[in-house]
Amino acid sequence: MKKRTYSCGLDAAVDVVGGKWKALILWELHTGVRRFAELRRGIDGISEKMLIQQLREMETYGLVHREVHRQVPPKVEYSLTDFGRSLNEALIPLGDWGERHMSTIEAIPRD
Amino acid sequence: MKKRTYSCGLDAAVDVVGGKWKALILWELHTGVRRFAELRRGIDGISEKMLIQQLREMETYGLVHREVHRQVPPKVEYSLTDFGRSLNEALIPLGDWGERHMSTIEAIPRD
DNA sequence: CGGTATCCGCTTTGATACTG
DNA sequence: CAGTATCAAAGCGGATACCG
């Protein structure tokens, strides 16, 4: 989310879902409501800092809903909004593409 | 293209198409063959350095074909491979999503 | 025309420690 | 459990200058 104007829809979408983690978080939430710790365990390699940072951004974008249950121990649940679900659906073909070509992609030499 | 293993297809796809420019370049190439200068003019705000850098990466990924015509003045044409075209197709729903929600996205407060 | 090379700042990400 | 704070490292991307 860096720009204020976009040259096309794909430009806008990449800006929203861009970065290392957002698409993964979106995907992890597609099955339903998830607690903070569940998300952390579900997304390999993400730190607490990055997870909360990305979730907060996605909350301001209106993609994610954050529900705090005031109790001890604390319980915070994250879920997709309708907007988030619509984005997730738009990502399905891309996910399928990645699935189909994953072995090819992994075989590409890096540097 | 930073990882060597992926947790899911979406993870892999985002790694390939991630960054500020690749999706845009892909999209610009969807109409057919393009010369270097055409691409530069077609993608608003990109520098020569970033364009060539991204094109080279996409070439090593096998998404883009680079054809050099040895003549004066030089002429280099870029086009999508079948692999690149398949990725582009997978990006269409995302582009449509962005198109539909562009005004909403632009209205999201930054910072 | 179609690049390369170098430098540099800003943002993103990671590591570690701490808290209500 | 669900964060916050701080610092440091890495990487992305821009500006400028130059070349075959």
Automatic annotation (TrEMBL), chains A, B:
HTH hxlR-type domain residues: 8-106
GO MF assignments: DNA binding
The keyword Glycoprotein is assigned to this record: no
UniProt keyword terms in alphabetical order: DNA-binding, Transcription, Transcription regulation
InterPro entries: HTH_HxlR (IPR002577), WH-like_DNA-bd_sf (IPR036388), WH_DNA-bd_sf (IPR036390)
Entry superkingdom: Bacteria
PROSITE patterns named among the record's database cross-references: HTH_HXLR
Protein name in UniProt: Transcriptional regulator
Originating organism: Micromonospora endolithica
Taxonomic lineage from the root: Bacteria, Bacillati, Actinomycetota, Actinomycetes, Micromonosporales
